[in-house]
Every structure is written in C-alpha cells, then in structure tokens.
Design goal:
Layout (H helix, E strand, L loop, with lengths): L2 H67 L1
C-alpha cells in the first residue's frame, strides 16, 4: 500500500470519527434542550400556582375587610 492509500485511510477515519462525534453531540444537545424545556414548564407551573395562591389570599382579605366595614 502506497502513501496515497495510507493518506486516504487516515482521511476516511478522521471523517468517520467526526461524523460519529457530531451525531452523539447532536443527540446530547437535543436531550439537554428537552430537559431545559421541561424544567422551564415546571417553573412556569410553580409560578402560576404561587400567583393563584396570592390572589386567593388577597380575595379573602378583601372580603373580610368588606365584612368588617359593614
């Protein structure tokens, strides 16, 4: 096998390694993006629950104040 054969095998190996690494990196990035999106959804749900609880407490306080005034 000549120098050209060795060079082609080395180039092919480098290309195959790059493609495989890129594929695994893309899959890892996709799973991280999905996890971040899921965490953001949970954080938004927690914020909405907090806002609902706060509004409920304010509504209760407002009703008690109205009862006291009458």
């Amino acid at each position: 096998m000549g120098e050209w054969g060795v060079a082609l095998i080395a180039a092919g190996s480098a290309l195959a390694g790059s493609l495989i690494t890129g594929w695994f990196t893309g899959r890892a990035g996709s799973s991280q993006a999905a996890a971040a999106r899921h965490a953001g959804d949970r954080q938004a749900d927690a914020l909405l629950d907090t806002v609902r609880a706060t509004l409920g407490e304010q509504r209760t306080i407002r009703l008690l104040d109205l009862r006291r005034q009458t």
